[in-house]
Queue: 3 jobs
Job 1
Amino acid sequence: MEVKNKIILALDVPSMEKAVELMDKVSPYLDTVKIGYPLVLAEGLESVSRVKEEYDCKVICDFKVADIPATNQKIADVTFQAGADAIIVHGFVGADSATSCLESANQHGKEIFLLTEMSHPGASRFLQPVSMDIASMGVEMGITNYVGPSTRLDRLGKIRQIIGKDSFLISPGVGVQGGNPKDTLEFADALIIGRSIYLAPDPVEILESIIDSIEL
Ligand code: O7E
């Protein structure tokens, strides 16, 4: 996946009205948006197609899918039918569950991202012990898109080693969670950024400054 300016906007705003207000300002700088539960639970899956159509961008649906294979498949199918270009899938539920999402993606000509380790402090207890194994599982399954934390660059580097240089790795946790954009891009192909942009008094100014900082 190509990501303009290596930044994926996490559109975690509570309404379509807020989404439009933000996208009207920042869309010239972006071509990839991540939409998750905050917007979809408030406005429905229609928000995915609306953002895609109005801003001509790719949408990654962040549903962190983590159910049994049969249910995962239904979730993935309806997400792709709504227009999503990709869906984010948890790896800890195992290969069969992730495979059902991969099969759905292949049928729809779409993609999945496998979530390895999360960026928040609590991930250290349950996810960290298995996150490298999740990355290895993804490689065995032939998955080429991954998510890993910008808040622990040593571990992001290990994930990159496991998935190889040709896999596509996106990384949340820069800004408010403490990660540094430029350092993260030593290992990741693109950053996922939410609050630093949508809570900023001037989202365009902050976006321009992040773009400048990663181009230096
Ligand atoms: O901290 P922010 O506001 O820049 O937002 C980060 C976004 O990335 C937010 O939507 C959050 O749900 C998501 N995220 C993490 O912060 N950490 C993770 O480990 C994983 C994700 C995520 O997007 O998961 C799938 C990619």
Job 2
Amino acid sequence: MNSTVSGSAPTVGGSLLSVDGDGRVLVGGRPPTAGDGVARALARLVVHGIRDDAVERAISVDQTNTSVIVDDRVVVKIVGRWAAADRAGDLLERLAAAGSDDIAALHGRVEWRHPELGTSTLALVTEYLPGAEDGWTWAVDDVVAVLDGRGPDPAWPALLGRRVARIHDVLGAGAVPTGADAAELRVARASASLDRALAAASGRVRARLHNRRATLARAIRSLAGSAPGLEFPIHGDLHLGQVLASPGDDADGRRYTIIDFDGDPQLEASDRERADAAARDVAHLLVSFDLVAAVAQKRVRRADPAAFAWADRARAAFLDAYRDALRHPELFDDTLLPGFEAEQLVAELHYADRFLPGWRYAPDAAITHRHPSTHELPEEPWTPPPSAPT
Ligand code: ADP
Ligand code: MG
Ligand code: MG
């Protein structure tokens, strides 16, 4: 069920809706937040049976959106900036129309018809998954269990391969041929990421990165020879943190759900809308297997090659299942993987250098493991940073 708010002075839960000069969506003059009744009022527009005293609980606030749990039944993702949830709304609706159970069920979307700006998504209302954790928790737990000899390899890499293939088959229905300059643009974008990462890195991390720039650059240059292919609106930000596990029976006693179709937060809003190759999502997810392997080593407080050996097996299981399940194999060009993975690794490191220094160790581990050193600068082996006792 969808709903639209409109009029010259539209209100949500009795508070006036507005867009400020920076494009921020405000309710009653403020950004919406859990407890103010805005998410509840929005949920009541599209879901039956939510009472007007239903409880709101906060889950996440990023720069662009606010997600609130209402009545322990639904998640209301309220747009922070005009138009920021249109892409996610369109993709979720297409997946829901195709009957996908790879995503959290979509209850509906609330749109806002604005007298000057046009019509845009105000909120997306989806099924709440009680007990859900994201992959930075559950996948790390699984790899730690493998490292401690407590567990067999988990079954989820193959399961995710099938889920991602189904999502790509649905979203790829409107795929278009790449532009003639796609290969050139891809090399330019990835090379720029490598240059930025090299410029920002420091200390031991910089030495290890510098010693691997030749092999990273070679992987990136391989994008230049890529054949024309197909592009479509991919997930765009597909990593294990966007895979929720909640109690269920998909595999490993869990249900796995893919969330957050906002697109790549590192791109400008206009670029996020652009179509891209399926291999971009696959590369992004495979890199996150390596990052999980790094986090697991931090958790066990030792550099343990068994973590990356697990990542190798997980990667093979994912790719086999993905290829096997993809009904439109022309969507996936695996020759793009080395270049896209190199780009993702250096972009991850650069992001950490700028915003999250405590995260540098993870892409550093993956770059160090995946790319041979030219030993131009003296370097030390990667070791995990100290981890607080748990
Ligand atoms: P963001 O764009 O801010 O990353 P997400 O859509 O990825 O927002 O959601 C952020 C977090 O909220 C998730 O990592 C998860 O912990 C929680 N979450 C999102 N959707 C659900 C859901 N349907 N059920 C339970 N928790 C959810
Ligand atoms: Mg997001
Ligand atoms: Mg997210």
Job 3
Amino acid sequence: SEGLQRHFPLRCLQISSFANSSWSRTDGLAWLGELQAYTWRSDSDTIRFLKPWSQGRFSDQQWENLQHIFLVYRISFTRDIQEFVTMLHVDYPFDIQMSGGCEVLPGNTSKSFLDIAFQGTAIVSFQGTFWVPNPDSPPWVQTACKVANQDQGTRETVRWLLDSVCPSLVRGLLETGKSELEKPVQPEAWLSSGPTPGPGRLLLVCHVSGFYPNPVWAMWMRGEQEQPGTRRGDVLPQADGTWYLRVTLDVAAREAAGLSCRVRHSSLGDQDIVLYWGRGQAS
Ligand code: PBS
């Protein structure tokens, strides 16, 4: 369905660490929406499927071909970067990160992206059929792009991977992975007290764990009144692909009674989880 396809970009990440002229490693991983589907370790010649649906609708032969392209690419990339470094006098050690992929849009269209970062800062992106330095990149990056842009074969391959291979892989994955991608998982919630913020005060903690997909709403309430002092933690990934969140409230101990934590999530329909402070938790 169109609604499904919209929210599941394929994001392929490459992380390359160059320690000196003779040691480097390159690892890869890829996500469809919030779910990691592939991993490719530096010491392995094969891209590993992390989901039963990771092959999508590609045949074994198509995967073989794709894997071969990436294997050649990894060797060439490492060699080319080392040449750039010698030519352009860049200092070791450094990390290069690449992020590339696509999203399938309604009406048989797609949009794609490919960005490169050096030491954590974006320096280059692939646009149309060229490597383009970011406006504020140092001069050596512009030189590197000029050199890279002379390789028409690589530019064509990159364009083909982004415009043709990526969207067709994603279309297959949306079919083979549909039930897992679409299936919401309900959070569990519980209350605890955190480290005391001061004399006569309490830190109320509401834990929300195990939900999928990511957006969740959680608030400390008094009756229907949202408590503006609610502090939201970061949404943290868990090993099973679900998410964890905590929201806290710093209150005077005598005002804790009657407070509740309210949780809304797509998996719950309109049945919000409501937990009352003082009923059950060890405070
Ligand atoms: C310090 C950072 C500097 C950034 C510099 C600018 C960005 C450059 C990024 C270059 C990334 C490609 C590296 C490999 C490439 O240069 C080339 O050596 C090889 N090309 C490929 O493997 C194509 C696949 C690219 C996938 C990219 C996914 C991100 C080998 O090229 C040679 O063989 C191919 C066929 O295998 C062609 O014939 C090509 O013309 C030929 O040069």
